[in-house]
Design brief:
single chain, about 260 residues, alpha+beta, three-stranded antiparallel beta sheet, 7 helices, globular
Length: about 260
């Protein structure tokens, strides 16, 4: 968009802009008005205002199950709870669907992304992301195809601090497996116990754009092999050290009592 805002490590607000936007930027600053930022970015700025910073796995599962959300039983609940909340937000604010839509009708042969921006015809994906690790994306083939056909892909990344369930008596693990037992899918109440999250605290949200100019900064994330022994298609990964080549917007969530203590 030619204009980019972010907070630096000292929480100063930084604005970068292309030369052709100089008059627009300084006119807005002198008149204390609001810059014309992407409508697509504004959707997520408004969505962020609806988010509680602390998410408890048990409560999130209960809410998704009660609402019969289509991904209510996924083991990585934080990412799917984010998807659930965003769908609710769009349903409550239906005018935003002209700008951003969920892409639940994924079928074989179509691009496998969570969201679609109809006005400008490109795809994006919502990600919940543990701090200190690189952002893992979609299949590399899908990402490259989307960039070739639609010029860019957005990753809307919600970073968080994580408290694992193994440090909290496995309460979420047992509840999740009990629910799967009720649907006839599992028996071991401690399945996934080493990786299950108990709670998360949102710290930061950023939008990463992949386009023709920065694809060379992507890394491959190899997924191992399928049950038939054939190698799975690699996914893309944005390493922490390379994030600066993709960020077009970022903001921090307010500190919580949990963060302070």
């Amino acid at each position: 968009n030619g204009i980019f805002e972010k907070n630096d490590k000292n929480n100063n607000r930084i604005m970068c802009f292309r030369q052709e936007n100089t008059y627009e930027v300084f006119d807005a600053l002198l008149n204390i008005s609001i810059l014309n930022i992407h409508d697509e970015v504004e959707v997520f700025k408004e969505f962020n205002k609806t988010l509680e910073p602390m998410w408890y796995g048990l409560n999130c599962y209960e809410e998704m199950i009660e609402s019969n959300f289509h991904n209510q039983y996924q083991s990585e609940w934080a990412g799917f709870y984010l998807e659930y909340l965003f769908e609710k937000f769009l349903d409550k604010n239906s005018s935003y669907k002209e700008i951003c839509q969920t892409n639940n009708g994924k079928t074989k042969g179509h691009l496998d992304f969570d969201i679609y921006f109809p006005r400008k015809d490109y795809y994006g994906d919502l990600k919940s992301h543990s701090n200190g690790t690189g952002v893992q994306g979609n299949d590399k083939e899908s990402v490259i195809k989307a960039v070739m056909e639609h010029k860019k892909v957005w990753y809307i990344v919600y970073s968080h601090d994580t408290l694992l369930d193994k440090e909290c008596g496995f309460t979420v693990t047992r509840y999740w497996n009990e629910q799967l037992n009720l649907s006839g899918r599992k028996k071991n109440l401690y399945s996934y116990s080493k990786r299950m999250k108990n709670m998360i605290t949102l710290t930061n949200m950023k939008i990463l754009e992949i386009n023709n100019s920065n694809c060379n900064y992507l890394s491959d994330y190899n997924q191992g092999k399928n049950s038939d022994g054939k190698s799975r298609m690699p996914k893309i990964k944005i390493e922490v050290k390379n994030e600066k080549n993709f960020i077009i917007y970022e903001t921090n969530f307010p500190k919580t009592i949990y963060d302070v203590y």
